[in-house]
Automatic annotation (TrEMBL):
Organism superkingdom: Bacteria
Alphabetical UniProt keywords: Cell inner membrane, Cell membrane, Membrane, Transmembrane, Transmembrane helix
The protein, known as: TRAP transporter large permease
Membrane topology: Multi-pass membrane protein
Organism (species): Isachenkonia alkalipeptolytica
GO molecular function, one term: transmembrane transporter activity
Subcellular location(s) per record: Cell inner membrane
Family matches, as InterPro entries: DctM, TRAP_DctM
Length: 427
């Protein structure tokens, strides 16, 4: 009976109830009907106190910074930068799509925000250049999985809070995995484009002068993620203060340098920030209450011992966890999967000698693959709804990219020295 609320969560989620309400309903059903010895006030207190975390303030700040960037002309500057770098390659605009997601990752920090933006910008342009709409939508969704792995991705902050590790180290650890994912997708795009004869967007490789000129135009956007890392490293500001500085920086660049940000945009920016923040925070609060139930019943300890009964070999354990995460990622939304599963799995792998920073990257890359995987991938639905692509057409095109990202995940999982090189160097 102590595992019944877990079954309730999945039952409610699969019937279409949002994950936050499913978690709350399951936790309340336990404390109201099963564990009647706990006063209801305790649940309400846990609900409120879970929001009283200073690092959580970073989330609305970074969401607002990403929203401001979308109105300030940054995306067009970055698209030109990506085109200069990769437009001459086989696949042309599809390669640009992947590189643009990588460049935008440090700004939007959200896979769904990146998928929505590129669905509006890149997919129509790719269709004009001869790419099929279903292929364009598939690579747009696949490339958006890179965004949350690059700082200041919201999932990096959430994992750091859950696992009680340095936000700065998590930020720095995201760069190499993101580049591995980018390389895997670009290689796949090249193979598919060669077979289908998709043309480059540029007739020839850009000259060094063209690249330098475009770099100067885009430097303000490119500076943001690296400036955040540098400021955190030298102790200039905390992660929360970094979010506030990012908002100020984006606003000044939008107003005075690119001059595309206007006062009239701010009501919509505030609205988008409130919507984005409230949805994330409601899931965090609900997961905190649900985590209180799991702690009460000692479910994390039971799962830890159950997994350790399967194997105590670190390599096999990581393989088991990856398979589990890939499977659950097909059904759970990424943020929800991270909040529910990270507290259960971190205590299993850390005693085996897995660095919690390295494990955080594995989990985040994994749940991003889930975001483009049928039947419930969130980026899949975002892209298909904006581009009006039938789900079956999308599924036929997405599988090569899922395979490429799984290969990237294997590299990330079993080459810890490569992933931890930058965090160890910077810190």
């Amino acid at each position: 009976m102590s595992y019944l609320p877990v079954a309730v969560v999945f039952l409610l989620y699969f019937t279409g109830i949002p994950i936050a309400f499913a978690l709350l309903a399951a936790a309340l059903s336990y404390f109201v009907f099963m564990n009647t010895g706990s006063p209801p006030d305790l649940i309400l207190q846990n609900f409120i106190t879970s929001t009283a975390s200073f690092p959580l303030l970073a989330i609305p700040f970074f969401i607002m910074a990403g929203t401001i960037m979308n109105y300030s002309g940054i995306s067009s500057k970055l698209m030109k930068m990506a085109d200069v770098l990769t437009g001459h390659l086989t696949g042309g605009l599809a390669q640009v799509n992947v590189v643009l997601s990588t460049l935008m990752g440090g700004i939007s920090g959200s896979a769904n925000a990146d998928a929505a933006m590129q669905s509006k910008i890149m997919v129509p342009e790719m269709e004009k250049r001869g790419f099929s709409r279903s292929f364009s939508a598939a690579i747009t969704a696949a490339s958006s999985s890179i965004a949350p792995v690059i700082p200041p991705g919201i999932n990096l902050i959430i994992y750091a809070l859950i696992a009680n590790v340095s936000v700065g180290r998590m930020f720095v650890a995201g760069y190499v995995p993101a580049l591995i994912m980018m390389a895997a997708l670009m290689l796949t795009v090249g193979i598919i484009s060669k077979r289908r004869n998709y043309k480059p967007s540029r007739a020839k490789r850009a000259t060094l002068l063209e690249i330098l000129k475009q770099f100067v135009e885009s430097i303000w956007a490119l500076f943001l993620p690296f400036g955040i890392i540098a400021g955190l490293r030298i102790g200039m500001f905390t992660p929360t203060e970094a979010g506030a500085i990012a908002v100020l920086f984006c606003t000044l660049v939008g107003f005075f340098i690119y001059k595309e940000l206007k006062i009239k945009h701010f009501p919509q920016i505030i609205k988008d920030t409130v919507y984005g923040t409230s949805s994330v925070m409601l899931i965090i609060v609900a997961a905190s209450v649900f985590g209180y139930y799991m702690s009460w019943e000692q479910i994390p300890q039971a799962i830890s011992s159950g997994l350790l009964d399967i194997t105590q070999n670190k390599i096999l354990m990581l393989m088991v966890i990856n398979v589990l995460l890939l499977f659950l990622g097909m059904f759970l939304e990424g943020g929800a999967a991270l909040i529910i599963l990270a507290p259960l799995l971190v205590p299993v792998v850390v005693p085996m000698g897995v660095d919690p920073i390295h494990f955080g990257v594995i989990v985040i890359v994994n749940i991003m693959i889930g975001g483009i995987t049928p039947p419930f991938g969130s980026m899949m639905f975002t892209t298909c709804s904006i581009t009006n692509i039938p789900l079956l057409d999308f599924i036929r095109e997405i599988y090569p990219f899922i395979i490429a990202l799984i290969i990237a995940l294997i590299i990330v999982t079993y080459w810890p020295g490569l992933i931890m090189f930058l965090p160890n160097l910077v810190y």
